[in-house]
Design goal:
two-stranded antiparallel ribbon; about 5% strand; about 350 residues; Four Helix Bundle (Hemerythrin (Met), subunit A); GCP; microtubule minus-end binding; mainly alpha
């Protein structure tokens, strides 16, 4: 599995794309989804396409038609994966044949949504506006014994959350820095606090939430490969490792469960997840007012700013309750994850009174 079928390379593709481990992929995807400077893939009569980068331009206007047509999606996202994928190990040209196989079986696809989820995705200003978009991976036998349906569902849940987070990063990073008249100070405070919230959450997500469990998982894979190499050198097959396909699958699923636990994506974390999405929603609504053309209505901004402050406090409260509940468990992994949660909480609270 590890040698002949290159399991590690398949796992690296998931890390790079589903878990946003590739900076190149993340940059290209963010540009394709959010950049207002990108050329729209929507074809209009009398408008001649140029050679500029295509983009969906999510949030570029309040009356934007959303979600985009499937043809627009294909045109916009076609190059994102192609430009960031390395060739499969089996596709590297053979010295004897020069033959190359296809790339890894990963592609963008449309996620099946319930009626309620569809309604939420139709709103361009909704935190759920990108819920229809997913990455699809079609592993063949025997890779699908490790990258099975359970693990692919976990990857999908993580990717869905990361799309929401990267949108928040783009929005808060691109908040205008101009004066806003009588409420300029409050607008600046909102920009400061929202950037702090999202940057702390991003660091937690990528470093402690994803990278730490993934490194531990790869360490286990490394150990298996070292044992196999030692067996080969000694001519003692099966003497140093007894790892089976079931064992590899279990290690993989445990890693993904650990990630989902630290990102608050499991069912038991529903209150935390919903509270986080309220903060995301408040940020989007405030940002929409500040970036809209024309004079910002002071009353509207005050209302949305109050909603942001309230949702922020509510999230901190719900997160603390979740941490206290998890810390009472007898399971070592849950206790460790609760400690990781305390780190997130302390970082979020550090500058909340500024």
């Amino acid at each position: 599995m590890l040698r002949e079928h290159h399991l590690r390379e398949h796992l690296e593709v998931q890390r790079a794309h589903q878990l946003f481990g590739s900076g190149d992929f993340l940059t290209r995807l963010s540009t394709a989804l959010f950049s207002p400077d990108a050329q729209s893939a929507e074809r209009k009569r009398g408008v001649i396409p140029t050679g500029e980068v295509l983009g969906l331009r999510l949030g570029a206007s309040s009356d934007q038609r959303w979600p985009p047509a499937s043809s627009e999606l294909r045109l916009t996202l076609a190059d994102v994966l192609q430009a960031t994928q390395n060739p499969r190990p089996s596709s590297r040209a053979s010295k004897n044949t020069g033959h190359q196989d296809a790339a890894f079986p990963i592609s963008f696809a449309i996620r099946e949504l319930s009626e309620e989820e569809i309604d939420r995705a139709l709103d361009v200003q909704s935190v759920h506006a990108l819920d229809f978009l997913r990455l699809q991976y079609d592993p063949t036998t025997p890779i699908n014994a490790v990258l099975n349906s359970e693990s692919l569902l976990s990857y999908d849940a993580i990717f869905r959350f990361l799309l929401k987070l990267v949108r928040q990063i783009y929005v808060t990073t691109n908040l205008p820095r101009d004066s806003f008249g009588s409420h300029a100070r409050k607008a600046a405070i909102f920009a400061h606090r929202s950037r702090h919230f999202i940057s702390v959450l991003l660091t937690h997500t990528m470093d402690l939430g994803i990278d730490a469990p993934w490194r531990q998982f790869l360490w286990s894979i490394d150990q298996v490969e070292r044992n196999l190499a030692e067996e080969d050198a000694a001519g003692e097959i099966g003497s140093r490792t007894s790892m089976t396909i079931d064992g590899l699958r279990s290690l993989h699923i445990s890693c993904l469960e650990r990630i989902r636990n630290r990102l608050y994506l499991r069912k038991k974390h529903e209150k935390v997840r919903l509270a986080m999405e309220k903060v995301f929603t408040a940020i989007l609504r405030c940002a929409a007012l500040l970036t809209a053309s024309g004079e910002v209505n002071a009353g509207d901004f005050e209302t949305e700013l109050a909603a942001f402050n309230s949702s922020n406090e509510q999230f901190l409260s719900v997160l603390q309750q979740s941490i206290e509940k998890s810390s009472k468990t007898v399971l070592k992994a849950d206790a460790e994850d609760a400690e990781i949660g305390r780190i997130l909480l302390s970082r979020l609270q550090w500058r909340k009174n500024e």
